[in-house]
Amino acid sequence: MPRVVHFEIHATDPDSLIAFYTAMFNWRFNRWGDEAYWLITTGPDEEPGINGGMLQRRGDRALPGQGVNCFTCTVSVDDLDMSLALAIELGATMAVPKMAVPGVGWLAYIVDPDGNILGMIQNDTTAA
């Protein structure tokens, strides 16, 4: 059964939101490589829960269809292409097409029939 394995916070001002979530929940933020992306540790690995990431918001969140203004959950799937095809068949639309996350896997985002964005990732350490 596919499970939520990651969340993302899209931020207009990442430094401000990092300060907010650090003060609020004591989450730890670590920049991932040279990208404007931070890995978020929400707690010890031995406790229930998931970790996530923060990235620079793209687009203007005030305009319809522009920018993501939410936490985006990402579900681990065995076959991303098959999952994307099924999602489209069931009424979803593509938000961000399949892309490589180097050393991690293949990632894509859909918009569900009610307008919610959902990430799906297929693990593949050879993705480049």
Folded structure, characterized:
This protein has an 8-stranded mixed beta sheet, covered by helices on one side. A hairpin with a 5-residue loop joins β2 and β3. The model has no long low-confidence stretch (mean pLDDT 88). It is 17% helix and 40% strand. It is of the alpha+beta class and 128 residues long. The chain contains 2 helices and 8 strands.
Radius of gyration, taken over Cα atoms and rounded to an integer in Å? 15 Å
Q: What is the count of DSSP helices, taking H or I runs of 4+ residues?
A: 2
The helix fraction, in percent, is: 10-25%
Q: Percent of residues in beta strands?
A: 35-45%
- The termini sit apart by 26 Å
Mean pLDDT: 88
For the sheet with most strands, the description reads: 8 strands, mixed
Order of helices and strands: EHEEEEHEEE
Structural class: alpha+beta
Strand order of the largest sheet: 2-3-4-1-5-8-7-6
Kindly list the characteristics that best describe this protein.
alpha+beta, 2 helices
In short:
The chain is α+β, with helices and mostly antiparallel strands. It has helices at residues 14-25, 80-89, and strands at 4-11, 28-31, 37-41, 52-56, 71-76, 93-101, 105-111, 117-123. 15% of the residues are buried.
How would the blueprint of this fold be written?
Blueprint: E1 4-11, H1 14-25, E2 28-31, E3 37-41, E4 52-56, E5 71-76, H2 80-89, E6 93-101, E7 105-111, E8 117-123
Parallel strand pairs: 1-4, 5-8
Antiparallel strand pairs: 1-5, 2-3, 3-4, 6-7, 7-8
